[in-house]
Amino acid sequence: MFDRYKGGEKALLVHVFLPQESDVEDLNEFEVLVSSAQIKILDIITTSRKVVSAKYFIGEGKALELAALVKELDASVILVNHSLTPTQERNLEKLCECRVVDRTGVILDIFAQRARTHEGKLQVELAQLQYISTRLVRGWTHLERQKGGIGLRGPGETQLETDRRLIRHRIQLILSRLNKVEKKREQNRRSRLKADLSSVSLVGYTNAGKSTLFNAITNANVYAADQLFATLDPTLRRILVKDVGDVVLADTVGFIRHLPHDLIAAFKATLLETKEATLLLHVIDASDPNLLDNIEAVNEVLFEIEASDIPILLVMNKIDLLDDKAPTIDYDQDGVPFRVWLSAENKVGLDLLFIALKERLSRQIQACELKIPAYLSRLRSRFYELRAVEQEIINEDGSFSLCIRLPLVEWNRLCKQEPDLLYLISNYSTS
After folding, report:
1. Is the pLDDT at 397 greater than 90, yes or no?
2. Rounded to an integer, what distance in angstroms lies between the CA atom of residue 11 and that of residue 40?
3. Are 75 and 12 contacting, i.e. CB atoms less than 8 angstroms apart?
């Protein structure tokens, strides 16, 4: 039994090249992550393995080499660019006599530093509690069950069990509070639908320039910096798009490769702005040599939060870092804008972005007149739940003639959920 060592600001980085994860860029990104956490990097230790070691993850020989390097360089923490099991983390700490933190722990530490609002702090705390709950094993086993007798009777549980119970209680409390936040966001979203407001959400890889673009478009004062995860808390502003009207623009948290699942779950309320958007602006750092991998990483997270079916407009940002690249709009074979090249930092090409938004958003509203037979009155109820009914006439045969207007995303989602709606569209509707 040993107490966990305290962390510090001087770190050794560890990366294992595995056959399925052999790219060097992942290591470079981890260096940027660590620098974003205000930690000094003393040295980087790399090794290659076909399979990871169950005991130390990196192999016993490399672990002994790492322990010697910790003493030589007086390192205060070891940061591993992989997800470690609690056992591997504990074994490395005991061998190296130094705090060990894996990739998930580093990301959580950055999130804890950047959270500013009450909601953001709750989301980070939830992710942290879910993370450490699996790392309590054998942490308090030296404290035996309380004895019987006068003055000694207690709950009859070890300190480990007490900690687990307290963590479970705190997690339930945070989930309850975040559930209220989610309901409030849902209510606001319903109000926007009722007011016929389209919503656009900025998504993209972390440090792609989303907050800079948000500030350039809205003249807001959202915190923007050249660092990973500068934005954690969602910010909403109204913008005016010609021939469309007021549009709600949301700036959200950036994505990253191997984003922890607990973190995605914890930020469910925040990511709801993305999931329920009319259109997604996928902001991409056009100067990044790994932009294709970054796009794939963002698409994976969008799929995980069930937002992959929402229309996307690609925004190629930072063209000021490219040679002779002018701002422009790229159209697909149907004449629909699918990509805009601009520089948010220099505010070049923003007018083209608004042109593309106007063309895309004008196509994202489904408006039609629909006749619903009496036996399908549940569809009428669904449309009223979505606040999509602009006018209703009750016919003599008991059917309902409705004037429907709602975002195309909601319409497509409803068509998937209600097969009868497709039949009505082909037989009883006029666009």
Report:
1. no
2. 6
3. yes
